[in-house]
Structure formats: C-alpha cells, structure tokens
C-alpha cells in the first residue's frame, strides 16, 4: 500500500504558509521519530513517502496517492502532524484529508477538536456520567468562583503534553498562574480540582466493537501530590513507569471500561491515550484524553504496547491496519500468517469477521447495479467486476459471448479437465429498470433487489474463496465457477453449459439464499412458462364492445379455479395484454402464465390441463384462434442418493460450525435444475434470506460471515 507520512517542522518556514498568523504549535516529532515510523511502515511492506504538512500538501498528495475511482488500490495517510498554527491544530490535516477524499489514520476533525479542548472534553465526560475532576474556566485573572476549592491545577485549555501546568493552593497564586498562562498561550485557562494520588496512562488501539485496551501504565511520581511536567516528559525515557500497574483485577477492569466509554463518547478513532488519577480511596477520575498520543519510544503508548507483546514496527503497522479496516472493511496490509494448526472453520471465521465491512461494501455495489435480464450493459458490468475479483484469486476465465442476454462466464483455478466442485450462480435479476430497491440496512436485515436470490450468494462465494486463500487451502481445491445471465429466462441459453460443466465436476453447489431455518435446497420445483395468444377476426359478428376481453376473463377464471386445488404445484398469471387492430375493439390478447411443479409427471399433467383450458372453444366464439408457446422450461430437482450423501457431508460440517441447517424444498427453480441426474448437487449456500423478487427481499446480516465460513469448509471437503 502507498502510505503518506505527514509531519510538521519545528519552525515555521514563511514559504510554507501564506501568513504566519496566530498561535503556533508547540508539539513536534523529531526527525528521528518520523524516520523511525517510516522505517516501521516500510518493514510492513508499504511504499512510504514523507511529506511536510504545509500549504503544498495537497499538491504532494495528488502526485503520490492512488486514485481509487480509477480502480487503483487505496492508499492511506499516516498523520504525525500536530498542525502549524491557529486554533484546533490537530484538526487541520484530518480536515484537509476529508476534503481531498484521502483515508487517514486517527480521529476525525470533530473528535480532535473536542479532545484538544480540555473543557469540552470534561463536559462530554460529565454528560456521559464518566468521572472527571470538577473544574472552572478563567477568562481573566480576576474571575471569581464561590465554589472553588483548593488545591487546584492550572493549565491552558487547548494545549497538550503538560504545557503550563501548575498546582496552587490559594487565590493569590491562582491569579498569578492564570495571568501568566493567558499571556503565554492566548486562550482560556482550565482550573481543575487537583486529585492527590496515583497517576495512570492507558493506551487504546482499534475501533468499536474491536478496541484493544493495552496494559495499564502507572506513572511513578514518588508522591501523591506530585505531577508530571513537560520537562519530565522530555527527558530521555520519560518519567519512570510500571507496566502493568500494580492494581487489582477489579480496578483494571474498571479502568478498561471507563476508557472504552470515553473513547466512544468523544468519537475517537484508531488509537488514543487516556490519563487517570486515583485518590486514596480508590476513586478513579479521567483527567484527559490524547487523540494523537505520542508514538515516541519513550511514550506511555509504546511502553504499554511492549508489555502487550508488540514490537515498535508491529505497533505502527497495527495502527495503520485498524484504520484500513475502518475505511475498507479489510486490511490492505500484507496478511499475517494464519495458524494452519487451527481448523479451517476457525481460521475462516476469524478472517471473515475482520473483513465483514469489505464484504458488505461489495454486496452494496452488486445490489445497487440493476441487472435486469435484458439490461445487458449492467449485467456485463457486474460480470467484469466479478472477473477482476476472480482473477485476483488466481482463476482463469472463459467468456461465452451472448447477444440476447449478458455474457456467461466460466472460471477455474486449475489446469485439469475435471473440477472437485462447481459453483453455479447467476448475475441477472427479474427487476425491471424502474423496480430497483437500493441496498439498505435495518436492524439485523439487509434489503435490496436480488440480494437473496443471487447477489448475497455471490458475495458469500467471494468471502469463502478469500478465506480459503488466506488459510492457504484454495490451491488444494480444483474449483470451477459458472456465472449465468439468463436465470430469469429459465436458463434458456446456459442450459447446455450447466450440463457440460456439471458432468466435469464431482460436486455442484448453488448460491441461492438459504431459508429462514438455514435450509439447504435438496429439491426444487420445475417450471414451465407459457405465452398464450388469443385472436378473433376483427369483423366477427359475435364481437361486442368488449371484444375478446370476456373470453380472456373466462380463461383466467378457469386458471384461478385450477389454482385453488394447488397441491405440489403453483400457477401464476404474470401478464395480460389485450388490444384491437387499428384502434378497434380488442380482438387479440396475450396471456403469460407460469406453472411450477414438484415432479415431471405432475408437470405433464399440468401442461395438459393448461392446454385444455386455453384451447376450449367458448360459446359464440367459433373463430377463436389459440397459439400456445412454451417459452421456457426447467425440470424439477428430485433428491437422489448422491444428493443425500452430499447433504450429510454438509450437515456434518454445519454441526462443527455450530450452524443449524435442514433440508429445504424450494418452489422457485434454479440453475441446478439443469444439472444432469445422479450428480451430487445442492443449492442454498448463500446467506439466509427471504421474499425473493419482492420489494421486501432481504438477507440476515450475521449470516454473511456464517455462510461464507460454511461454504469455505464445504469447498475444501469437496477436494478430499
């Protein structure tokens, strides 16, 4: 990954700003510290460029940082710049990154602005019932507060690293201290109740809900009334410290929870340090937070990280990693070596859980692309998106160009004739150009067009393949993937390809969503689609002002009556169109009908009944012409012995994953309907979902990880 490390110089160069104006920052990293971080990032495998955070920053970044919209891998800014001058200096570089659209480590402008203002920090802490010492704000040395109780500690409200801090125990010294600090720092002064006792510093790395609280560091002050000054912090190695602090498990847990609450309440990201004091009675108070905690080797953050087992390099790369996950849902760092002694289900789930946000972003992109079966451009666009992902995983592609629908794509990750396993799914949906329901989340559900029928399954497949690659098992599986583009048409164009590649595979897997009970599809209905055209002569003497419409009504009524007796079949009228020649009374009509059936014999019976109803001559309509066109057909899937054995394998793996599955009979047909008999084929390996082809089509959020991990295990078992 390309990483821009941004820092600021100790002295302002007039060429770096338009005007030298306002308060200048007192905080800087030394050149050695900047170089140390750059080396750590380079050891992590990144291309690093060190850039000064001045007025030329945007131009420097424009040249170096990748342009994600052009398809390049994203880069990150590793911000070590505290700002040059003015107010809220911590916010300057993050705000510029927000404007430029560049990802960066650390908190956003709002979080930095609140934390840098010690008064605002304390207000937020108080509002969230997080203990912090009482305080008063002095705008002038003459301000008076009747409730002020000595001793107090005096400090400028917008500075860090203990600048200006002083403990006083009377009004004369307080006024002198306030006067001195106002003149020096040109800002309001925070006067805070001084807590006599022990002092602690606690580092945090991560983002909710995965925040790592590092071991507690105690600052060994030597006396309960002592404070840590800026000169103490600038000493080589800093103040003497103890880590982990010698406190009870209960106090450690209390500190941990206070840190997490404060981190969340103040809206911070990626890493921070929290400073505490504990009085003689064991009461804990948060003094302040530092949203840009020192990354120096003598700082409390690294001191705690060493105790937790980090090296300096791994700490720096960890901070970059958690920021990358926050932005992209996955780490773009070189993957850590998986523990291959662990079962695949554990390795896969761990990987998938940390990459869930990335999977969801992929799913969002799929769902928000309208891939109606005849929207060939968008279907092919989705195919290209998947093609890039599959090639990245080591799959080669064979493209079957189509004219009437989108291009069918076949991938495999090996050079042999036969597959261990063939995955079949489709990219088209039935949603028309005006029917698209965009991706949105509501509690534990994710909604969107095609999300359960196909696009959730495609996302699960990619997650499973990535998890297998991460666990170094993907190359051990001879895997084929066939992505069709005519599922809405019953596989009219892809049928032969499904049959061809299925015969070359030991197992066949479909990616339709699972039922609400976790159902794996072992059987599904067949389907016949009919387009029936009725015509009467335009000058028929028996026609009335309604023309052919009464006849059409009788046919539909007969179908409705037949539908009421449904058992192991389903009839649906999907379209009715009646028109007249040259604007006259309707004399021809088209009826579109779908029949789903459980067995081949029932399919033939229903075909006969439908034809009988449609061809029956109605009274007074001797000249009625009926043309029945069976526009598509799919045979039913009947569970065979090979399917049962395959299901038992999946069931065994599901138990190890602690997932509930069951045999499911699906009324809607799928691509596995075209798989030749006696080949082990199961469908329903997508996420748990419901309400196919409706405005309420959804999947369950948590099932993305669960089903991806299960699919990874099934694919690997198929190679055995």
Automatic annotation (TrEMBL):
GO molecular function terms noted in the UniProt entry: ATP binding; D-alanine-D-alanine ligase activity; hydrolase activity; metal ion binding
Keyword Cell wall biogenesis/degradation: yes
InterPro entries linked: ATP-grasp, ATP_grasp_subdomain_1, Dala_Dala_lig_C, Peptidase_M20, PreATP-grasp_dom_sf
Keyword check for RNA-binding: no
Domain ATP-grasp: 122-321
GO biological process terms, semicolon-separated: cell wall organization
Keywords attached to this entry: ATP-binding, Cell wall biogenesis/degradation, Ligase, Nucleotide-binding
Database matches in PANTHER family: D-ALANINE--D-ALANINE LIGASE, D-ALANINE--D-ALANINE LIGASE B
Similarity annotation: Belongs to the D-alanine--D-alanine ligase family.
Protein name: D-alanine--D-alanine ligase
Source organism: Candidatus Nitrosopumilus koreensis AR1
């Amino acid at each position: 990954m390309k990483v821009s490390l941004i820092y600021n110089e100790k002295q302002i160069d007039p060429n770096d700003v338009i005007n030298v104006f306002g308060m200048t920052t007192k905080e800087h990293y030394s050149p050695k510290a900047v170089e140390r971080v750059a080396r750590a990032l380079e050891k992590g495998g990144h291309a690093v460029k060190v850039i000064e955070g001045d007025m030329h920053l945007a131009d420097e970044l424009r040249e170096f940082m990748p342009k994600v919209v052009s398809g390049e891998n994203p880069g990150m800014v590793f911000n070590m710049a505290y700002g040059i001058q003015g107010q809220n200096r911590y916010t300057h570089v993050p705000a510029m990154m927000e404007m430029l659209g560049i990802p960066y480590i650390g908190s956003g402008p709002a979080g930095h602005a609140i934390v840098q203002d010690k008064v605002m920090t304390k207000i937020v802490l108080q509002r969230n019932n997080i203990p912090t010492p009482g305080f008063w704000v002095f705008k002038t040395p003459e301000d008076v507060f009747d409730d002020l109780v000595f001793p107090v500690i005096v400090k400028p409200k917008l500075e860090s690293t203990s600048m200006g801090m002083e403990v006083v125990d009377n009004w004369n010294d307080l006024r002198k201290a306030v006067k001195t600090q106002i003149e020096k720092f040109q800002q309001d002064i925070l006067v805070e109740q001084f807590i006599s006792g022990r002092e602690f510093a606690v580092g945090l790395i991560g983002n909710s809900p995965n925040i790592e609280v590092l071991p507690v560091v105690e600052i060994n002050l030597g006396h309960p009334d002592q404070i840590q000054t800026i000169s103490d912090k600038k000493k080589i190695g800093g103040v003497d410290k103890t880590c982990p602090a010698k406190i009870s498990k209960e106090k450690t847990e209390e500190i941990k929870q206070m840190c997490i609450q404060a981190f969340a309440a103040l809206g911070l990201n990626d890493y921070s340090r929290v400073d505490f004091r504990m009085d003689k009675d064991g009461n804990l108070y948060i003094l302040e937070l530092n949203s840009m905690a020192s990354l120096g080797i003598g700082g409390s953050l690294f001191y705690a990280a060493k105790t937790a087992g980090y090296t300096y390099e791994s700490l720096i790369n960890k901070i970059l990693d958690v920021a990358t996950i926050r932005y992209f849902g996955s780490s773009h760092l070189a993957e850590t070596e998986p523990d291959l002694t662990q079962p695949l289900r554990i390795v896969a789930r761990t990987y998938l859980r940390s990459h869930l946000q990335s999977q969801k972003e992929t799913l969002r992109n799929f769902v928000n692309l309208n891939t109606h079966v005849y929207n060939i451009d968008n279907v092919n666009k989705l195919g290209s998106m998947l093609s890039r992902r599959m090639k990245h995983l080591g799959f080669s592609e064979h493209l079957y160009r189509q004219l009437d629908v989108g291009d069918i794509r076949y991938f495999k990750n090996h050079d042999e004739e036969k597959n261990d396993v063939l995955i079949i799914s489709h990219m088209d949906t039935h949603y028309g150009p005006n029917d698209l329901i965009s991706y949105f989340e509501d509690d534990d559900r994710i909604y969107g067009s095609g999300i359960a029928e196909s696009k959730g399954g495609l996302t699960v497949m990619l997650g499973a393949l990535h998890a297998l690659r991460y666990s170094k098992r993907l190359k051990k599986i001879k895997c084929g993937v066939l992505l069709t583009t005519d599922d809405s048409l019953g596989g009219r164009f892809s049928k032969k390809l499904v049959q061809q590649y299925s015969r070359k595979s030991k197992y066949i897997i479909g990616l339709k969503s699972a039922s609400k009970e976790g159902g794996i599809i072992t059987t599904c209905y067949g389907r016949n689609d009919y387009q029936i055209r009725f015509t009467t002569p335009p000058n028929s003497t028996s026609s009335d002002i309604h023309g052919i419409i009464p006849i059409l009504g009788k046919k539909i009524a007969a179908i409705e009556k037949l539908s009421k007796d449904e058992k192991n079949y389903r009839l649906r009228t999907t379209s009715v169109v009646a028109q007249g020649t040259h604007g006259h009374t309707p004399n021809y009509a088209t009826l579109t009908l779908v029949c789903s059936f459980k067995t081949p014999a029932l399919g033939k019976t229903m075909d006969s009944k439908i034809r009988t109803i449609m061809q029956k001559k109605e009274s007074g309509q001797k000249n009625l012409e009926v043309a029945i066109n069976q526009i598509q057909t799919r045979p039913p899937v009947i569970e065979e012995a090979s399917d049962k054995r395959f299901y038992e394998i999946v069931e065994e793996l599901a138990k190890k994953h602690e997932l509930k599955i069951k045999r499911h009979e699906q009324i809607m047909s799928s691509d596995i309907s075209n798989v030749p008999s006696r080949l082990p084929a199961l469908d329903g390996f997508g996420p748990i979902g419901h309400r196919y082809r409706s405005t309420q089509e959804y999947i369950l959020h948590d099932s993305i990880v669960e089903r991806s991990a299960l699919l990874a295990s099934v694919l690997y078992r198929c190679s055995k």
